[in-house]
Write a structure and sequence with these properties.
This protein is an alpha/beta fold. It has one domain (4-225): 3-Layer(aba) Sandwich (Rossmann fold). 45% of the residues lie in helices and 15% in strands. The chain is built from eight helices and seven strands; from the N terminus they run E-H-E-E-H-E-H-E-H-H-E-H-H-H-E. The protein has helices at 13-24, 52-65, 89-117, 128-132, 138-158, 176-179, 183-191, 201-211; strands spanning 4-7, 28-33, 43-46, 71-74, 120-125, 163-170, 223-226. The protein has a seven-stranded parallel sheet with strand order 3-2-1-4-5-6-7, sandwiched between helices. It is globular and about 50 Å long. The N and C termini lie far apart (36 Å). InterPro entries: KR_dom, NAD(P)-bd_dom_sf, SDR_fam.
């Protein structure tokens, strides 16, 4: 049965792969963006998730056009990498505001309709960096680690209403950006990955698709790594 799915930041990269996977299986898929083109077959809505009014307006529009959001994939995120002693207040705060507070805003808004329906799936896209840390990413890693606490708290609050909240933690993904890394740097990164390769965005999408399915109805508060073993032990 077709469901209404919202993927924040679903107009490119991992978010686009996730959105297209849901669309291919017949779901009604909306994606938020900040002014970029949206792929055909997806319903685009412009939204800055750091603005509560824009989040509410986006959900209201999606509800009117596609129906209440039944599956939320909180994927939108930014980076502002720099070493701890060089990081500004704004560099730290803006990343937390988008990656963590933005996901919280979307989850809070989605929960109102999920509670009425007594069914819902929330999936938060974290990162291996949120579990193992990464130099130059105190802001990003903190925001991605925070998604784990967010999902697990939602699980304890809403779990009895057939609403699940899980986290997917990707490792290194094959993207245009990683393809441009110097060969020596790519080799250095690959040497630390037991799987000996970068992931494809579709592999992250497959994990998200599973967690959104009926088959995963008893999986909640979980962290599912898609990292080739890079973050083992964290």
């Amino acid at each position: 049965m077709a469901r209404t799915v919202l993927v924040t930041g679903g107009n490119r990269g991992i978010g686009l792969a996730i959105a297209q996977r849901f669309a291919k299986q017949g779901d009604r898929v909306a994606v938020t963006h900040r002014g970029s083109d949206v792929a055909s077959g997806l319903y685009g809505v412009r939204c800055d998730i750091t603005d509560p009014a824009q989040v509410d307006a986006a959900f209201t529009e999606i509800e009117a056009e596609l129906g209440p959001v039944e599956v939320l994939v909180a994927n939108a995120g930014i980076t502002a990498d720099t070493l701890l002693l060089r990081m500004s207040e704004d560099q730290f705060g803006s990343v937390l505001e988008t990656n963590l507070a933005g996901a919280w805003r979307c989850a809070k808004r989605a929960a109102t309709k999920m509670l009425r329906a007594r069914w819902g799936r929330m999936i938060f896209i974290s990162s291996v960096a949120g579990l193992s840390g990464n130099p130059g990413q105190t802001n990003y890693a903190a925001s991605k680690a925070g998604l784990v606490g967010l999902a697990r708290s939602i699980t304890r609050e809403l779990g009895s209403r057939n609403i699940t909240a899980n986290v997917v933690a990707p490792g290194m993904i094959e993207t245009d950006m990683t393809a441009e890394l110097p060969e020596a740097r790519r080799k250095q990164i690959l040497d630390g990955i037991p799987g000996a390769r970068f992931a494809q965005a579709d592999e992250v999408a497959a994990a998200v698709g599973f967690l959104a399915s009926d088959e995963a109805g008893y999986i909640t508060g979980a962290v599912l790594p898609v990292d080739g073993g890079l973050g083992m032990g964290h």
